[in-house]
Amino acid sequence: MKSLAGVALALGTAACAGSRGEMMMAGPEARPEPREARAARVAGRDPIEAFRLYRKGAEQGDAACAAKFLAFADRKEGTQSQREYARLFVERLLAEGSLKESKAELHRQLALSWSFNAPRNPGKARRHAEATGKAGLAEELVREAGTKGVSGATGKAGGVSVMAEGTAWAGGNDRILEASGVLAFVVNEAGEPVFRGRRLWIRNGNERAVTVSVAAAGVAHRELAPGQEATVELSPGEDPTSGIDLQVRYCWRR
């Protein structure tokens, strides 16, 4: 939803600009470059670095950067994996109380994102709309989202076990996400999605356990419970890479 991303990116720029960022030289003295400014500056040539910078600002409790992180993920160039990752990340920060400002606005932004921008989830949209204190908004979002063919429900798990396989990049892997509900990203030592690295972060968003295999990390059929996360590192001798192959075995969802 282009307008949603554009409006949210515009909101909070001044507040986010006050975040601590990388150092830049200004005359004889060094001063911190605002993280938001650096993210905006590199977004065109290095969107993964911009994604990391917005995430870092949110992690440090900057609500304005959290809003911009969500909006950056929601832009048309973003992947579904990045959108879901950003939403889950901000949801966790809200639940932990790390974001103490603009909570109602963040809940509203999450409600809109889950309603209108894939991957959609009407249940989450309703909960976030209700968290803004506007029950009418929840009904309106769910009703309008329903007219747009919102999917989001996982359906009943069948008895057939199937395999999804592919390469996880800094942008995730949407095919694996859509099939199995599993998020996978190449990350750095801090757990941040990066273009090139030696680690693979995996999260099972499915309603049932899945098993994952990552040959380059020597991992075979490791079980992940619903909601569980894991990070695996490439085996010694494997060079850092921009993409890591994995397999996910899961129950087919009807």
Give your account of this protein's structure.
With 254 residues, this protein is α+β, with helices and mostly antiparallel strands. Helices cover 42% and strands 23% of the residues. It folds into two domains: 2-147; 157-253, Immunoglobulin-like. It has helices spanning 2-10, 13-16, 35-42, 47-59, 63-74, 80-96, 103-116, 122-131, 135-147, 174-180; strands spanning 23-26, 29-32, 157-168, 182-187, 199-204, 210-214, 219-224, 229-233, 244-253. The strands form three sheets. Strands 3-9-6-7 form a four-stranded antiparallel sheet, covered by helices on one side. It has a three-stranded antiparallel sheet with strand order 4-5-8. Helix 4 packs antiparallel against helix 5 (63-74) and helix 8 (122-131) runs antiparallel to helix 9 (135-147). The chain is globular.
Provide the spatial order of strands within the biggest beta sheet.
3-9-6-7
What's the pLDDT, averaged over the residues?
83
The number of domains:
2
Main β sheet profile: 4 strands, antiparallel
- Number-wise, the strands total 9
Radius of gyration: 19 Å
Q: Based on Cα principal axes, name the global outline.
A: globular
- Percent of sequence in beta strands: 15-25%
| Number of DSSP helical runs | 10
The quaternary structure here is: single chain
**What distance lies between the first and last C-alpha atoms, to the nearest angstrom?**
28 Å
Structural class by secondary-structure content? alpha+beta
- Poorly predicted segments: 10-15, 18-26, 149-156
Give the SSE string. HHEEHHHHHHHEHEEEEEE
**Share in helix:** 40-55%
